[in-house]
Automatic annotation (TrEMBL):
It comes from the Bacteria. Residues 325-347 are annotated as: Disordered. InterPro entries: Amidohydro-rel, Metal_Hydrolase. GO terms for molecular function: hydrolase activity. Residues 39-318 form the Amidohydrolase-related domain. Keywords: Hydrolase. The keyword Hydrolase applies. This is Amidohydrolase. The keyword Hydrolase applies. It comes from Nocardioides oleivorans. Pfam families: Amidohydro_2 (PF04909).
Length: 347
């Protein structure tokens, strides 16, 4: 819980990871390139006081994660979104067993999502059934640019991917988080293109598609897709730290998202351990669209409360104290919103 100026904010960090990029787990040059690229993003977008050393960035462990999120970070609940990256790391990048054990020890604070790769074919479908039963999955995290043998990516509308989405539907896995947008060395940018979201969201209207990183740098493509698909949501991982280094760019991102998809379909995330949640939450609550960016409406306290936790809590059935709940906005299901926004008002 975060409190500022008499307002209470229920916080759900909707995208976190517990990774291991220590030298003994790195399989090849690509594994080293990946974590080095992560660290450069961390170092270049964090305030000086929040920077970690390279060595402590390689692995945090459960004890530090709990402290950074729940003791120091105001977070009420967090959701693991693990990336496998088995071509780059001996034991995978996201640490399944350690993360799942934390959720079992702290079920009121943590939810574990897992992953799948349709290139694993029929065997992967069997594995997804087993994973859903073991982990009690409500969601998965997909990485369409992941390498797999000679393949350097897959698409959401591939025929075998549809078999997996049909199985998700059958197993009650409703929340499909997808990394779309920013690439990480050595992965290919085009394999993270948002274009295939449109097709699958139309065909699986009973699933929620949370597009992590809101498609950056293809924000406009994401917005045009998401505004017409009520089951497409925006995850702010990687977008959030621009609040510090490029606040006008962050204002543009938030302004466009609020205009195209509205306050009920945007989710906060620190992308821990890329960044820690404390400073992001503090700066977001204090943040406002600059006065001269008249094409965007101001961010209301109610909208910030929804983004910081209420939207993800609703999607995952996380209990929120009654006094902190808010009703959905009275907005259209599809198409742009905020017609009262300032551009029109100044004509």
């Amino acid at each position: 819980m975060y409190t500022k100026d008499g307002e209470n904010y229920f916080i759900v960090d909707a995208h976190i990871a517990l990774w291991d990029a220590r030298p003994e787990n790195i399989k090849n040059l690509q594994g080293k390139q990946f974590i080095d690229c992560f660290y450069d993003y961390h170092a270049n977008l964090s305030p000086e006081s929040e920077k970690w050393s390279y060595e402590e960035y390689l692995y945090q462990g459960g004890e530090r994660l709990m402290k950074d999120l729940f003791t120091d970070g105001y977070v009420d609940h967090a959701i693991f979104q693990p990336a496998h990256l088995g071509e780059f790391y001996n034991n995978g990048f996201g640490q399944t067993e350690e993360a799942f054990a934390l959720t079992q020890a702290n079920p009121d604070k943590l939810t574990y999502n897992h992953n799948f790769d349709p290139r694993n074919g029929e065997a992967g479908l069997d594995q997804l059934r087993a994973d859903a039963e073991r982990f009690g999955l409500k969601g998965v995290k997909l990485y369409t640019a992941e390498w797999h043998g000679d393949s350097r990516g897959w698409k959401l509308d591939d025929p075998m991917a549809y078999r997996y989405f049909e199985l998700c539907r059958e197993l009650g896995i409703k929340n499909i988080h997808i990394h779309k947008g920013p690439t990480i060395r050595p992965l290919d940018r085009d394999a993270f293109d948002v274009a295939d979201v449109d097709h699958v969201a139309t065909d699986f209207t009973d699933l929620n598609f949370v597009i992590e990183h809101v498609g950056l740098p293809r924000l406009e493509d994401f917005c045009w897709i998401a505004t017409q698909e009520p089951n497409v949501h925006g995850g702010l991982a990687v977008a959030m730290p621009f609040i510090h280094t490029r606040p006008r760019y962050f204002a543009q991102i938030m302004g466009e998202l609020m205009y195209w998809i509205g306050e009920d379909r945007i989710q906060f995330s620190s992308d821990y351990a890329l960044w820690t949640p404390r400073w992001l939450i503090e700066q977001f609550v204090d943040f406002q669209i600059p006065d001269d960016m008249t094409e965007y409406a101001p961010l209301t306290t109610e909208a910030k409360k929804k983004v910081l936790g209420l939207n993800a809590a609703k999607m995952y059935d996380i209990e929120v104290p009654a006094e902190l709940r808010l009703p959905d906005a009275d907005e259209p299901e599809t198409g742009p919103r905020q017609p009262e926004a300032a551009d029109l008002a100044t004509v």
